[in-house]
Structure formats: structure tokens, C-alpha cells
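Protein modeling request. Please complete all fields; requests missing the sequence field cannot be processed.
Requester role: graduate student
Desired output: 3D structure, C-alpha cell encoding
Chains: 1
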Amino acid sequence: MEIMKPFDVTDTTLTSTSIAEPDTASGEVEWVDRAILQTYAIPNSSTLLLACSKLMENNLIYFIGNAGAVVKIDPSTNIVTDFGAHTGFYTACESGINGFIYAVGTSGIVLKVDTSLELLSTFGAYTNDYNACSKLGNFIYCIGNGDVMKINTSNDTVSFFGSYSGEYQACDITINGDIYCVGNANKILKISTSNDTVTEITQDLTPSLFNCTTGADGNIYAVGVYLVLKVDTSNDSIIYFGGTSGGLLPRCSALGGDGLIYSAGGGSSSSEVIAVNTSNNSIDEFGSYPGDMRTMSKSSTGDIYMSNGYSIVLAGNGYRLEDEVILSSTSRVYKSAVDFNKDKPDVGVALVPPSWVDLQYTN
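Delivered output (363 residues):
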């Protein structure tokens, strides 16, 4: 029998010198600051400028832009691949029926992407430029200059209606079927899909808006250089709120799984992601990325993916409820107590209520 001198077990004495942290063999995962954006390279990025993106039923996100291939990312693995080739420049896309994507832009013809067979085809003809589109049932509504193009995805035909004076860059559809559009004029275009009519609404403070998203509350939000425009869709009234740093021109936006609207763009060598909380009209800015973000989509798990043309950037929405991570600095295992958790675990455990639960020592 060996007699040992008693000692107190503390963080200093309870250490392991033989097992590296995190111990991946036991499933340990090191906490990663979700404010630090993750970047993934695009194949043939020197020739691509990706301008639109769409999450499809297979949970893959597809990106389309100038002449070249269609790019896709699998958010479950963050593996990026490409396929096919086209000769146009497409700035907007929407999902149709049976897994097809329809893209429009400045090319004068509609691009149709079969995501199952990974085949590309074209149909239809148009003379105006179209910068954005929204879907209702079998129909896709496209806006840009002069009129609305309506794509019937059940028979791959196009028709046109309406007349407007402004140039519109972005749009989104609301729960009642109306589509709101913003752009380069002090106006908002409202499309009534029930009778295919258009109305222009005057707004005064933000002459250039390039993104538009329907919030969790059903209202329309467009992030400007300094202010956020909100359209109350119940009565078409307009308010402005917030105050961004003004360091970038927000070109794209999307509703995240956490209910925040995320927006990004360009204008400097290093820009931040803007997060708009529509429940209290507050704004946060985080992360850092190079280049000019042109398109943004939400994955099936609520994370935000965006592209500046030569790479795809993940602006994560934080850890999910009951996700477990470790901190090598504390040698502790933590479990997330909330969804979309961006707090650092050793900070979150001290919050009231806590956003993280301290479970145990690492092995």
C-alpha cells in the first residue's frame, strides 16, 4: 500500500498532460466565435461574379452570376462545387417547381437550372433588365426597368404587365401576396399579384436601396447606407430607424433563423455584417470580410451564406439549443441554454438568465 499526502482538487491540480484539447476522439468540439466569419473558396473564382443565390429543397444553396458555371454549397459540410456553363449575366433567381431555378438579368433570356440533373437550358425573351424576383405559387415576378416580367413555371412562358418610372434593385413578397420593391429612386414599387397591377409609393430619405427583406413580423425592411427603411404592410406607411456606421453600401439581405435581418455589401477593403433586430428596431454590426457581397441566402438551419463572387462566406447565427462545446482555456464542457447563441461560454454562464451551462471538466 502506498500512502499519499492529501491535496485539494482545484483547476490547477486537476490537469491532463497526455490528452490534447479538444479530444476529437470523444466528440469534443472547441468553441468558435461566430462573429468571425468563415470563408470557402469557389472553383474558377477568377472568372465568376456570383450575383444571386437560392436555397433549394435538397438543402443546397445555388449561386448564379456572369458567364460560367453554377456554384453550389452543401451547408452540412460546407463543400463547394460547380457544374454546367452559361453565357449570360444573371442578377436574380427564384425556385420554381420540381427543383428548377429560374434566373434573369441583362441577357434577354431566362436561364433554367435543373438542380436534380444539373442541366442548364434557356427559354423566353425580354428586352428590359431585371434585377430581382419573387415567387408566388407557379409564378415568378421579376422587376428592374420599365415593367414586371411574369414567368409561368408550369409551362415556361413569360408575360409582361405594369409600367413604372423608377429603377428597382430588390424585392420581397409578403404574406398577403403583395410584392414590395426598392431601388435607385425615392419610391417603393408595390405589385399586387391578385390583379397584376403596380403602384409607386413615395419615400423621402433613402434614394438608393439595393436590398429588401420581409421580416418575421411581416413588414418590409430595406437596409440603407445609414438608415433602415420599414414599410408597414398593413397600411403602407413608412418609418426610418437605426444608424449604421455608413462604411458600406448594403447590397443584399436575408432573414436569419434567429429572426434577425442580415445585410452585407461593400465599399471598403474590410466591411461588417449588419444585423437588424425588427422587434426593437436596433442594429448591430459584426465580423469582417473583404470584397463586395452581392447575394445572401439562408440555409435550412437558419445560417446565412453570402458571396462576393470569388468566395462564399458563412455568417453563422450562433450555436443551437443544447449544442455542446469546450473551452481549452478553462478545460470545461459547456451546453448552450438558448438557440442562436453567440455568447462566449465562460461569459454566458454568468448571464441572467445564463446562455450557457457549465457541465463538467474536459477529459
